Amino acid sequence: MITTTRRLLSGFAVVASLSGLAGAASAEDLTIGMRSNASSMDPHYSALGPDVSAMKNVYETLTARDSNLQLIPALATSWEPTGDTTWVFHLREGVKFHDGTDLDADDVVETLKRIPKAASPDGGLVTYARRIVDAKAIDPLTVEFTTDSPAATLPLDLARVFIVPSETGIDTPVSAFNSGEKAIGTGPYKLVSWTAKGDMVLEANPDYWGDAPKWDKVTFSEISNDSARVAALLSGRVDMINYAPPTDVARIGRDSNLEVFAGPSVYVFMLFPDYRDDSPLVRAKDGSKLDANPMKDLKVRQALSMAINRDAIASRVMEGLAEPASQIITKGFFGYSPEAAELGYDPEKAKALLAEAGYPDGFQIDLHCTSDRLPMDGDICAALGPMLARVGIDATVNATPRAVYFPAQSGGEYSLMMNGWGSLTGEASYILSSMVHSKDGTYGVFNHFSYVNPEIDAKVEKALGTLDEDERRAILEEAMTMTMADLMAIPIVNLSAIWAGNTDKVTYEPRSDEDTLAINATPAE
After folding, report:
1. CATH assignment of 266-495?
2. What whole-number distance in Å separates Cα of residue 301 and Cα of residue 478?
3. Closest Cα partner for 196 from 168, 177, 217, 169?
4. Whole-number Å distance between alpha carbons of 495 and 246
5. Residue 21 in contact with residue 31, Cβ under 8 Å?
6. Matching CATH number, 60-172, of 3.90.76.10, 3.90.190.20, 3.30.230.10, 3.30.1130.10
7. Number of neighbouring beta carbons within 10 Å of residue 358
8. Do the two domains 60-172 and 266-495 of this chain adopt the same fold?
9. Residues near 495 by beta carbon (within 8 Å), at least 6 away in sequence
10. Spans of all domains in the chain
11. Any bridge partners for residue 394, and if so which?
12. What single string gives the DSSP state of each residue in 211-266?
């Protein structure tokens, strides 16, 4: 059986049945097979998807996003701008941390102080707090934020800032969270234990302010291999899995004891060219050094885009569980441009563009991709190689574990990169300000590609200071149109979010952000 939200995904089949599952846990406990678990239990260390997803089970934020990325109250019940550069947030009464202490404004203030100290090499949560120059407690349940300039997106940004007790301390090391000593949040579940590349075990928080947790105990078990994760579900070793591989969806659907839960995802696979004058892993066709980095030429980037058969990747590699993408955010997002052109497949035109750019024979390049972050990333990487070769670009494909890929990407070791990116605020301002904007100490924290476009920078900064939603949308659409015209990044396909579970045990409400949250899992009736 298959459950979808917002739109029905093609390519699914629902057929009856194999024999019952063995060894399922009691209804009070839930075991979830995860493609990857958190890299640590420090809620401020990393902004990568698996880390944020895990943190949301234990820690909470002032604002939050529902399953369709709509902004909702969380630890704050309301908020309003009180001046051009000030916002006031009103905290929820009666919220307790897992250690029994009450949430108050000082906890928020001290959390903001810790974020820049706790960030990992990928920047952690710094990008979400970058606009805040001061935070102060007006009274125990009221916090005032002062920003460096008008900050229209502050409520969106704070949906990613996890609040910890003021007693935590800004210099508390990651190890203190991993051990559980400082892993204290206000969320529906408490941390019991965490093991790197192993299990994250949680127990219900009986004092949770919201709806009572539905499970006494939840174990998130890392099973990074897709086939092994599916096998664990089929055997009953786990009750549910995330990132059900598209290639196995039909197989899972044929088992009447299992159910697939799917919906649209915010994640887009895209190519990222390196914009430095001297890129390390691009060469002439004969392997000799080039005089210039070809990817700085728009015609070369257009050729890269036209070499990609997005329909084939969506239908064949992704088994129909993806859609061709033409922008770096998904349709329906605030700031998605109606003016940006669709990106087509035209290998002959790609060859002509390369010739016009001075590369009639093409060139050599190393292509690096993630292999274990999002479904089928390694397979898409492999499919890109022959497509690029057809137009004369000889790409050496390197599908790399994310633990290696992201540090190397941020360290400037690659020339052409592919990974998934999701604008998890539901608004284009996030990806435009953190990835497209030039890196300047405030913006561009994820711009690891040395891309600089002052016109786009100005548009993004103007949008971030525009409180009127209609005006901000129009500015963001302009910035997105410019970004896609310049092909700063080259979109490939928009993913689907897919979970699967034991029909007799659990149902799951799909989330566009692909987070796997115990509160979205309901015991089967």
Report:
1. 3.10.105.10
2. 20
3. 177
4. 10
5. no
6. 3.90.76.10
7. 14
8. no
9. 265, 267, 268, 269, 318, 321, 322, 374, 375, 420
10. 60-172, 266-495
11. 364
12. SPPS-SEEEEEE--SHHHHHHHHHHTSSSEEES--GGGHHHHHT-TTEEEEEEEEE
Structure token pair of residue 138: 């007006």
The pTM of the whole model exceeds 0.70? yes
Rounded to the nearest 5 degrees, what angle is found at the Cα of 464, between the Cα atoms of 462 and 470? 85
Q: Give me 79's structure tokens.
A: 């908020």
Q: What is the mean pLDDT of each run of 10 residues along the chain (525 residues)?
A: 34 30 56 95 91 96 92 97 96 98 98 90 82 96 96 93 96 95 98 96 97 97 95 97 92 92 93 97 96 97 98 94 95 93 97 98 97 90 97 97 93 96 86 95 91 98 91 97 98 95 96 95 93
* Amino acid identity for residue 150 in this structure: P
Amino acid present at 138: I
Token pair listed for 108: 């928020």
Determine the Cα–Cα distance for residues 71 and 227; give it in Å rounded to an integer: 35
